[in-house]
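INFO batch 0412 | record 1 of 1 | parsing
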Amino acid sequence: MENMPEKTRKIKMEEIKLVGFRVLCPGVRYIKEIPKASLHLENRMSEISHITNSKRQIGAFKVEENTKDEDGYWVCMEVSAFENVPEDMVTLTVPAQSYAVYHHQGSNKEIVKAYEDLHKWIETSGFKRLKGRWHIELYHSWKDPERLSVKLCDTIE
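INFO prediction complete | emitting tokens
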């Protein structure tokens, strides 16, 4: 957990609207399927209206989903409005929430360890994880799964 104070903090984010692809597969396949969906989304960005930041992809998921419709992982772009959404894409609105944030740089294989460190920080800081809410990942570099730059945002009370 070295460097955790510098890499970890609490933030509040306003509601975000997302357009992209839902990845639904057995748990062990996500490490392969998410990067594929990310590249597919990048190739189709020009079809999405009202993108707010073309240099950032957003992943969304729930640790404990309430319905089958919430199962999976969403690979998306943030938009200011849902308009002319391509038929094979999905929309998702993540409400305003507070997050514990950890900036991970490195392989997607190391994200599990980064989340473990983040969860320890949340516990020692006295926050409560909200597993039934949308958690997000803010990707600033996603083309190479071995060299990611992503902010892991775990929803907290």
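INFO post-check: The first helix runs from residue 4 to 7.
INFO record closed
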